[in-house]
């Protein structure tokens, strides 16, 4: 359960909410330039570009949930259970495991234009990181500040979709979410008008009724519609602080409160963290369920040119600024 958005004001912004019922050892990780990655199907590469994002680190390997590189290209993996289908390695294809996709994309490409050509050769293979980890069923949203894509591999093969809304959640597959937007075309951020009948004197009895019918539950389809509505009707000053604040407000509209979504095993989904990267400037901001004060990590010359990963523990204890 997650929601991802891309937004452009003066700078480009990209981020997501992570909605799960557990922690996965997440830390903010900067992968430097020239960092080596070995691919499970053979071969290896070294990163051309540094990247920053949230990851679990195992054996010096950053398992990114989402990240942004120094050129402003961003990608996030979101849960896609039941629909994601991974294959066996195929000759003539770029065979990558799901966990290899984010570092491969961000380490090698500066924008979607050059990435799009290579995605046609991609084949996602069913190989876990280790014997103790499973293969996560995922689909991905990629953005470079000018356009966004969705990458899904299902039983019908690999699909790359243009994503003009710049929003992604979870199931069903992305074409359904695009089609489902048509069901809400009458919603408006403007005051409600009487379209029911000219013969009845109907008046709005409260503000916000132009969006009456906007779904408020936590399902992926409802979060997709709600995030699209908030993002597409967003009014925001173009400066960085205003943009960051607005970005988090949009994702707050789809956040999951502990206890409001109980799973079959009686565990609770919550928004464990929410993040926003200024992809233009290479700064990663986040807040957690335990700490809603923003924490930021910059890609600096030092960590972009380091020989190892730079790792920052998540701040998950509430930080409060006392005024007296």
Question: In words, what does this structure look like?
Answer:
With 324 residues, the chain is of the alpha+beta class. Helices cover 17% and strands 31% of the residues. Strands 13-12-11-8-7-6-3-18 form an 8-stranded antiparallel sheet, covered by helices on one side. Strands 14-1-2-15-16-17 form a 6-stranded antiparallel sheet, with helices on one face. It has a two-stranded antiparallel sheet with strand order 4-5. The radius of gyration is 20 Å and the shape is globular. The mean pLDDT is 95.
List the topology elements.
Blueprint: E1 2-8, E2 12-20, E3 27-31, E4 36-38, E5 44-46, E6 51-58, E7 61-69, E8 74-79, E9 94-96, H1 98-108, H2 112-119, E10 122-124, E11 138-143, E12 148-154, E13 157-162, E14 167-168, H3 174-180, H4 220-232, H5 240-252, E15 270-278, E16 283-288, E17 295-298, H6 301-304, E18 310-313
Short structural description:
This protein is α+β, with helices and mostly antiparallel strands. Helices cover 17% and strands 31% of the residues.
Mean pLDDT: 95
The fraction of residues assigned to DSSP E strands is: 25-35%
Alpha-carbon distance between the termini? 40 Å
Alpha-carbon Rg, integer: 20 Å
Q: From N to C, what is the helix and strand string? A: EEEEEEEEEHHEEEEEHHHEEEHE
Q: Helices and strands: which structural class?
A: alpha+beta
What percent of the residues sit in helical stretches (DSSP H or I)? 10-25%
Query: What strand line-up does the widest sheet have?
Result: 13-12-11-8-7-6-3-18
How many β-strands, per DSSP? 18
Outline the low-pLDDT stretches: none
Number of helices: 6
- Overall 3D shape: globular
The largest sheet is: 8 strands, antiparallel
